[in-house]
Specification:
The protein is mainly β. The protein has two helices and 20 strands. It is globular. Helices cover 6% and strands 52% of the residues. It has one domain: Beta Barrel (Porin).
């Protein structure tokens, strides 16, 4: 409880500082120079169909996210914060939650390198995203894509060779939600969390601490359009009973053009050591063969050892169709091959189209996979995956978002 209060106080303090810095805006010059302070947000709506939900044979429609963004950049002082509110329809769990997505302040130095302090994005693997679709890649659900933690992030100046280094003493913390959500999982990023009242009843109370992340990338070829990179991560896992173990991950990644297409490739390997007693399990599994991850209101088990492989191909369609433009077609494939307990592989494939019109952005995604908490009835999909769910299932997501 003390850790939770301390963490929430730290995050709130960070967001308060961010708000103070962002609110400090010099008056616009007489020549009408653009203000360094920008305030915006978005409201997004989804239609969802899940092949395994017989009670919603025609799918369902509802709010996905409402969010508020504040950004500041005067050339030297920089900062960014975003707060989100989710309220999902019954077919999506029928719950609401809110959380700080990110909140940091920083500086841009004379050589264009930057330093961020606060709740910031870990720079690991394919960056800024390992996917083209709205639902991200399988690496996101394992905690290795679009993840935000509390700490320091340094990024070298842009150029043919870039490197980033981050140190995060704490994770991003948990926030508020309805009574049918798991309190420790009311957050955006998938972190290791305590398995509380809405989880699997394992009694695990793990948390992430003192995570060090490093990334190097080389931009090569004509116009430096090909990026080749390596990433590494190492941090502590504290079990809530005084024991500390380690988790490590490494990845190699590539992004660049192949003819008219853009290709993204990543190979990622992670190994977590845990310290659970015999009672901290479910279904008779080895208690040290999985760890609980949580976000968006609920936790689920992840195998403690695995390899992730990602292969994405996209194509930007030129021209416009009436008021619509920015067309992109893509296929994003990912697989988690678990290396412990004879656990079954998890697969995610998303074929889709994105486009825009003014301030509106649209996604049309057809998802197919198995042993995945968002693509099958198997909530433990990134852990053991029993044979009763050993089949591919489908999910359709159509989204319209207004960004302002």
């Amino acid at each position: 409880m003390t850790d939770t209060i301390s963490l929430c106080a730290t995050v709130l303090a960070t967001s308060t500082i961010a708000a103070a810095v962002l609110a400090w805006t010099p008056a616009c010059a007489a020549d009408g120079a653009e203000s360094p302070l920008k305030i915006g947000g978005a409201v997004r709506f989804n239609y969802v169909y899940k092949s395994w939900q017989d009670e919603y044979s025609s799918g369902f429609f509802g709010l996905d996210t409402a969010r508020l963004n504040v950004d500041y950049d005067d050339g030297t002082l920089i900062g960014s914060a975003e707060y989100r509110y989710n309220n999902y329809p019954t077919g999506q769990g029928g719950y609401w939650q809110h959380f700080l997505h990110h909140g940091w302040v920083g500086m841009r130095f004379a050589d264009k390198s930057t330093l961020h302090v606060g709740l910031d994005k870990q720079v690991f693997g394919l960056y800024p995203f390992a996917s083209n679709n709205f639902y991200s890649s399988i690496a996101f659900y394992a905690g290795f894509e679009d993840k935000y933690d509390l700490g320091l992030t340094y990024a070298s100046r842009p150029g043919p060779f870039e490197w980033q280094l981050g140190f995060y003493p704490r994770d991003g913390g948990s926030y508020g939600g309805g009574g049918n959500t798991a309190g420790a999982s009311n957050r955006y990023s998938y972190n290791i969390v305590a398995d509380d009242e809405q989880g699997f009843g394992t009694g695990q109370h793990d948390s992430e601490r003192n995570t060090l992340v490093g990334r190097m990338a080389w931009h090569v070829g004509p116009d430096a359009r090909h990026e080749v990179g390596v990433s590494g991560l190492s941090g502590e896992i504290r079990n809530g009973a005084g024991d500390t173990t380690r988790r490590n991950a490494a990845a190699v990644h590539y992004a660049g053009p192949v003819g008219p297409f853009k290709l993204m490739l990543e190979a990622l390997r992670y190994r977590y050591r845990t310290s659970h007693d015999a009672s901290q399990t479910y279904g008779g599994l080895d208690p040290n063969s999985f760890v609980m991850l949580g976000a968006f209101g609920y936790p689920y088990p992840l195998a403690t050892k695995g390899n992730i492989y990602i292969a994405n191909l996209s194509y930007d369609i030129p021209g416009k169709l009436g008021p619509f433009g920015g067309f992109k077609v893509y296929n994003d494939y990912g697989i988690l091959k678990k290396q412990v307990g004879g656990y079954k592989d998890s697969v995610q494939n998303v074929t889709g189209l994105s486009f825009s019109s003014g301030k509106w952005v649209f996604y049309m995604d057809f998802m197919r996979g198995k042993h995945h908490p968002y693509l099958s009835p198997d909530a433990g999909g990134l852990g053991a995956t029993p044979t009763e769910y050993d089949r591919s299932t489908r999910r359709i997501n159509l989204q319209a978002g207004y960004y302002f």
